[in-house]
Amino acid sequence: MYIYNNVGAMTALHMLGGTTRSRETAFNEVATGKSIGSASDNAALWAISQIMEADVSGFSALSDTLSLSEATVSVASVGAERATEILGEMKQLAVLGTGQNVNHAIIEEQMAHKTSQLNSIINSSQFNGVNLLRTDIDGTGATAMTVASSLDRPGGGGSPVLSNITVNSLDLEGSPSFNINGRTAITDSASAATALTEIEGFMQYAIDGAAALGASASRIADQNQFIGKLADVTRMSISKMTDANMEEAITRMMAMEVQHKLGIISLNIANSMPETLLKL
């Protein structure tokens, strides 16, 4: 008696192969936490997730840039605010100098000290090499700071477009509207009145500029907060698309493990059947 084909063993082996592949898939999901870890798992969703992960990396870089820029603008804003305070003190001195029975030389000496203090504030209000209170903010001749603020991706899978926020400098160094070093020296009541008018103009220029810097700092901070939330939402979306349901994956892996063991038993039984039949 001859047995040429063991159909039962062939069937058991085929079923065992399918069980083994399913078990490996479930095991991989549990090990990696991903139901879609490569293009072979789901090409469409994998491609979308890769684009979104690239966007998340871009958001992280944007947040770093916005944080640095916010600090730069905030330092300049503090300097501008302090400059307006000193100008207020200079205004008081100029008002005092309009009187007849005062020592104008002492007043002018105090004004000179205040002017020197203003120049010191202007020169020191820099962060990371950028000073928004100077004519040349970074040594390259720039008069404004450009801040990368967002990555705008058009529909249809187009390339992202970088949007910027422009922060103009408050030139307290060389602007004709703030010629503090060319102010009128106080020598008598008439020159004090002229100096008072000049300081009023300097003060208004500084106040307007400080307000603009404060508004820019606030805008950058708000944008940075939005970018952080956008990155969090994008990460959650990627997770929903690609992460495995761990409870389901573990349950499926355990079930596949049992089926695998039963498949091996079935294969062993099928392999022993011809020998048992030949003994009959």
Q: Summarize the amount of helix as a percent range.
A: 55-70%
Helix/strand order, N-terminal first:
HHHEEHH
Assembly of the depicted chains: single chain
Secondary-structure class: mainly alpha
Gyration radius over CA: 38 Å
Widest sheet: strand ordering: 1-2
Proportion of residues in extended strands: 5-15%
Number of helices: 5
Keywords:
mainly alpha, 280 residues, 5 helices, 2 strands, two-stranded antiparallel ribbon, 68% helix, single chain
Question: How would you characterize this protein structure?
Answer:
This protein has 280 residues and is mostly helical. Helix content is 68%, strand content 6%. It contains 5 helices and 2 strands; from the N terminus they run H-H-H-E-E-H-H. A two-stranded antiparallel ribbon has the order 1-2. It starts with 6 loop residues before the first helix and ends with a helix.
Summed up:
The protein is mainly alpha-helical and 280 residues long. It contains 5 helices and 2 strands. 68% of the residues lie in helices and 6% in strands.
List the SSEs and their pairings.
Elements: H1 7-32, H2 43-97, H3 104-124, E1 144-152, E2 161-168, H4 189-242, H5 246-279
Antiparallel strand pairs: 1-2
